[in-house]
Amino acid sequence: MKEYFRFLGRCFRVSFVGDWRYQLWMLVLTFVVLLGVNAYAKQFVHGLIETGMTDQVSWGLYIANFTYLVGMAAAAVMLVIPVYIYRKHELHDLVIFGELFAVAAIIMCLAFVNVDLGRPDRFMHIFWRFNFPRSMLTWDVVALGGYLLLNLHICGYLIYCSYRKRKPHFVFYIPFVFVAIGWAVSIHTVTAFLYVGLGGRPFWNSAIIAPRFLASAFAAGPAFIIITLQIIRRTTAYRITDEALALLRNIVTVALAINMFLLGCELFTEFYTHSAHMASTVYLFFGLRGYHALVPWIWTSIAMNLVAMVILFLPLARSLKYLNLACVLMIVGIWIEKGMGLIVPAFIPSPLGEMVEYKPTLNEILVCLGIWAFGLLLYTIFVRVTVPVLSGRLVSDQVETSGAHPARSGAS
User: Please, what sign has the CA dihedral across residues 217, 223, 226, 231?
Assistant: First the structure.
């Protein structure tokens, strides 16, 4: 235990060390986090009146970001599957970075749920009356909490074994990896069921919502990892191979194509059949009764995803410049599609036929930016600590005094 606490202390000190780019990045993130804390303090005092949500539109930017980040967290499994099922060893070292991002994303998810509740003490209500298994919200809490614990264990165990230059034991590692694969699919499926199970919102009453969630998650998540890995490769001495990036590119290409196909199926079903419950879909894509706030957003999202898909299917994607462009377009496009394009339209029009549009306030936006900055701050610290450990530059004193070779262990 003394060695483990020494390891934690060394990691804490390493997180404050870096060049001017690292220091500037951390300073900017800290500043944005403080802006978010100030905005949330204002909301805590005055209530959800500080947001753009109303009685008609009770879920807004907070739940939109929550939905998107659940998918980003689930996408870590797209690094695990090729490594441990298909034996793609070029991604072996990179699984940890995906798992670390999953930890940061789940923490951000919980933060968005907390700010959406208005009062933090309401969060405890679900534990006082743990309505399991009837409540879908209870299932979601179990799924998110379990996935967070799994990823914390996997990441912590692998990094500590690498720090001690010990090969990870099969029993404490591999079974958790395979459980995490199934759990990653479950967290986004359960989140989709939260919406699908609300019969009063016909916009969500589709069996295809859960597959769409997974397809979009498996596109946006690895796209973010691709950009992250390139930043790591340019700013550190850690070796990231082009083969690993190429494999991730293939993953996002297939996932994005499936996501666009499912979206097309959804639109065909809505518009060709002229369903009696298509008012929300018409509002989203073409506007309704003179209200059209979300129309530019959804068409921008579709355009971004289509351009990204074209780039990925062309030889252009072999160039990192165009691959990065496609990844950015995917990340932003899917955020719009799964955020503002999925959550808000279900409330417009209301069950009584009222047309009340939603527009997030500045305070609401600052809270969201603060949570995102906090999550990126955590992820940056995780990566800053992990890279020296995996590369053999941060090892246990016992390893150094014994003269052990600093090559990477089988854990990394």
Answer: negative
Instruction: State the total domains in the chain.
Output: 1
Amino acid identity at 201:
R
Cα separation, 412 vs 392, in Å, equals 10
* The three-state (H, E, C) secondary structure of 271-299, written as one string: HHHCCCCCHHHHHHHHCECCECCCHHHHH
Residue 397 counted as domain residue: yes
Distance (Å) of CA 376 to CA 224, 248, 339, 373:
12, 21, 19, 5
The string of pLDDT tens digits covering residues 271-303 is 887 776 788 888 888 888 888 888 899 999 999
Supply the DSSP string of 37-55, one letter for each residue: HHHHHHHHHH-GGGSS--S
For residue 251, the SS3 value is helix
DSSP 99-127: HHHHHHHHHHHHHHHHHHHSSGGGGGHHH
Q: Is residue 412 part of a domain?
A: no
**Coil/strand/helix, residue 365:** helix
In whole angstroms, what is the distance from residue 296 CA to residue 301 CA?
Answer: 9
Q: What 8-state DSSP symbol labels residue 314?
A: S
pTM reported for the whole predicted model: 0.88
Q: DSSP assignment of 177-200, as one string?
A: HHHHHHHHHHHHHHHHHHHHT-TT
CATH of the domain at 109: 1.20.1630.10
Q: Can you tell me the distance from the alpha carbon of 77 to that of 85, in angstroms, rounded to the nearest whole number?
A: 11
Q: Inform me whether the pLDDT recorded for 155 exceeds 80.
A: yes
**Range(s) of the domain holding residue 49:** 2-402
DSSP state for residue 86 in the 8-state scheme: S
On whether residue 410 sits in a domain, the answer given is no
395, 398, 404, 409 alpha-carbon torsion, rounded to 10°: -50
Distance of CA 12 to the CA centre of its chain: 25
